[in-house]
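fyi for ur records
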Amino acid sequence: MTRYWAVAAALLVCVACGGDDDDAAAGDEKPTTTTTTTSTTTTTTVASTTSTTEGSTGTTLGVAGTNLTVKVSGTSPTREATLSCGRSSKGTGFLAAPATAAKACDLLRTNDAVVKRLVYGPPDGLLCTEVYGGPEVARISGKIAGQQVNAVINRTNGCGISDWNNLAALLGPAA
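which gave:
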């Protein structure tokens, strides 16, 4: 029994210490931990918090007001399409089928990494395998929820191949 009280006391001390106030000021909020101890049980509850920092995207960005133009070249013929996402999904060209447009909008709605890649480009210092995947080049321009998009995806290395595969619903299959 004494051991339980010692563990509970240690947890309370850790919780009371808290975090560095500078982290909260920078927008890096930490989850709050609460520990409750009864005579025989210790319960720890973690309350999650969400914060948005400058330059981040996610489900808070959404896809309402998304209008993109997609041009895929490198093979004949060049393919072009437009995509609009909001209350409904609409596309032209190779994204004209309602199910295809809906799938592309769902990709943007549910995959934060894809939206970040399109809005902010590839991360700095990214190391890529030197594997050639084909001559295709996709140029995607427009806006995702008011954020400017001007992305180029090619298949000249492992990073480009991975991006293409992640964006397949928007770009269509590689030739």
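DSSP finds six helices and seven strands in the chain. thats all i got for now
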